[in-house]
Amino acid sequence: LKHLHTLWKQLRKGEGSSRMILDNKQNHQGPFEIFFRNDTALGLRIQNLVEKDMDELFNCDILTDKATSLIKYLLQGEVPTEWNGLWRGPQDITAWMSGLICRRKYLERDVTVYQQPFILANVYNPSTFLSSFQQHTAKLRNCRMDELKLSILWEHKNSLDLTEHNNISDDQRMTIILEGIMIQGAIFWDKNLTDIPADEKDLLPMPVGILQYSLKSDPDQTRSLNCISLPVYIDSGRSQMVGYWDVPCKSDDEEKWILAGVALMLQK
C-alpha cells in the first residue's frame, strides 16, 4: 500500500495543513454561490477524512477494525465504502484520489461560469450544479423552476465570442458554455450524428454545448432540427446519469443510435 501513501502525499504536496477549515463568510447567497460553497466544503470534508484514515493506517502501532477494512479495499484497488459514500467518483482508487484532489484544487480558484467555457466534470456534483443553474435562471426570469426546460445547442468553439466584458447581461448570466463533453458510440460531424470511422476511438469529443433553461412557453431553439435525446453520464462507466440532452441527427437514424447505445459523457 506504500504506493497509495506516496501518491496521496504527492497529490497533497505544497498544500500545508491537512486539517483545512472552510471560511463560511459569504457576501452573496445566490444559487451558484451556495452550490460552489457546498461543493468546496464537501471536497475539504472528504480530503480531511482520507487524510485522517491514511494517518491511522500508516502511523499507528495497532491496526483497528477500520484500518483492517481500509486495507481490504485498498489492496483490491477499490474505494472504501465511507469515502465512496461521500463522493461517487471513479471506481479505481488511484483515479478516485486524483479526481478528488484535482476537483478540490479547481474549486479553490475563482471559478467563472459566464462567458468562458466551463467543464462540468470539474465539480463533485454535476447534477446539483444543473439544479442550481435552473434555480438561478428562475430567479433572474422571476418564474417557477417547473416553468423552465433545459435546451442545449452544439457549436464549434471558434465560432463563439468569448471576449470578456466588464458588464455581464442577464442573457449571458442565463447561458453556460460547456466544454469537455464526450460522445460514445458515434461522432458528431457536420451538425449531425455520424458513424465512427474505423480508425477513430470509441470515445470522442463533442463541440462546446450552449446550455440554457428557457421557458416552456418559449419557442424551442432546436425546433428546426431533428434531435435525439441522449443519456448523459458522469463517465464511460455509465453508473451515474446526469440527464438527457438533445443532439441533432437525421430523422431516419434515431432508432439506429438508440440500438447502438450512443451516450454523452462528462469525462473519459
Number of strands: 10
Query: What's the Cα radius of gyration?
Result: 21 Å
Q: SSE string, helix = H, strand = E?
A: HHHHHHEHEEEEEEEEHE
Q: Which residues sit in consecutive blocks of at least 5 with pLDDT less than 50?
A: 16-26
Global structural class: alpha+beta
Sheet-strand content, in percent, reads 15-25%
Write down the overall geometry: globular
Q: What level of helicity do the residues show? A: 25-40%
Give the tags.
alpha+beta; single chain; 268 residues; 10 strands; 37% helix; 19% strand; globular; 5-stranded mixed sheet; 3-stranded antiparallel sheet
In short:
By secondary structure, this protein is α+β, with helices and mostly antiparallel strands. It contains eight helices and ten strands.
Layout of strands and helices, then pairs:
Blueprint: H1 2-11, H2 31-59, H3 65-75, H4 81-86, H5 93-108, H6 126-141, E1 148-155, H7 170-173, E2 175-178, E3 182-184, E4 187-189, E5 192-194, E6 203-205, E7 208-215, E8 227-233, E9 241-248, H8 254-260, E10 263-265
What does this protein structure show overall?
There is one protein chain. The chain is an alpha+beta fold and 268 residues long. The chain is 37% helix and 19% strand. It has eight helices and ten strands. It has helices at residues 2-11, 31-59, 65-75, 81-86, 93-108, 126-141, 170-173, 254-260; strands spanning 148-155, 175-178, 182-184, 187-189, 192-194, 203-205, 208-215, 227-233, 241-248, 263-265. The strands form three sheets. A five-stranded mixed beta sheet has the order 6-3-10-8-9. It has a three-stranded antiparallel beta sheet with strand order 1-7-2. The protein has a two-stranded antiparallel ribbon with strand order 4-5. A hairpin with a 7-residue loop joins strand 8 (227-233) and strand 9 (241-248). Helix 2 (31-59) runs antiparallel to helix 6. The longest helix has 29 residues, at 31-59. The radius of gyration is 21 Å and the shape is globular. Residues 16-26 have low confidence and may be disordered.
